[in-house]
TrEMBL record:
Residues 83-282 form the Alpha/beta hydrolase fold-3 domain. GO terms for molecular function: hydrolase activity. The keyword Flavoprotein does not apply. The keyword ATP-binding does not apply. This is Acetyl esterase/lipase. Belongs to the 'GDXG' lipolytic enzyme family. It comes from the Bacteria. InterPro entries: AB_hydrolase_3 (IPR013094), AB_hydrolase_fold (IPR029058), GDXG_lipolytic_enzyme (IPR050300), Lipase_GDXG_HIS_AS (IPR002168). Keywords: Hydrolase. It comes from Sporomusa malonica.
Amino acid sequence: MPSLRGRLIKFLLQNRHFFSLKFKKEIIDWSQYEAILSFRKQVEEGAGRFGKMPKEIQVSPVYIDSLYAEWILPAGATKDKIILYFHGGGYVCGSCHAHRAITAKFVKGSQVGALLFEYRLAPEHPYPAAIEDSLKVFRWLLDQGVEPSNIVFVGDSGGGGLCLGTLLALRDQGTPLPAAAVAYSPITDLKCAGESHRTKAKVCLSPEGMANAVAKHYAGDKGYELPYASPLYAELQGLPPLLIYAGEDEILRDDSTQFAAKAKNAGVDVTLRVGEGMFHCYPATAPLFPEATQAMHEICAFVKMHLGK
């Protein structure tokens, strides 16, 4: 059974509309571009809810061609071992600002520096723009002299799906792969075919109708089964060790469970954690309650192990 504190945090997040003096959850017409812009604004304004930046973490901006990125480093850390962080946002929102504090939690817990980057967003830049940008950033790291074996991918939600899609693209192009990858609450199936998309719709924290809409904005006209956009439909052999987290009470639960099962059958070293009664991207809320804290500790230990720290 989930902890009392975990259930309380989940209840508050599920009913966060009350804090805006709204008695019902807002119904968003995701087909409207203005709705996407409004959602982006809400995400940016709510970035502080995931905690403040630790004083011992240093942030340095860098441009990779036209892409904005940030080095997020523990004091005195070098850049020879790196977390490459793929931010979430359903491919339609997200930024370094919105994910800086979240990324810093993994940096602090592992004492491994991170490169957090901004990829082009849909609907202005649909698939494959995000994949192209991710490949560019990874190759830039290699050009900086960072060994692939000294890089671990970490991504959440849409960023988790992008992280997995990037691994597949690198494998298919014959580029050396990173040491390992962590994906928590990843989007792996843009068809939204998993049972959890129906059975968990009422309890999931994601806004109603968002999953199907962002799939259409990101890759709808190109097909929902493109392997780099929907990694569940790819051949999964040859991937590095994976650690996947999902909440039991989120619509993306089956995106994780089905992908993990298929990867394991393909011979991939994959570890799956489904948090009982947990919600979308719950590890990012550490240290608010025990389940999130345990997940954060395990993820950081996984990163350190595969980077030889």
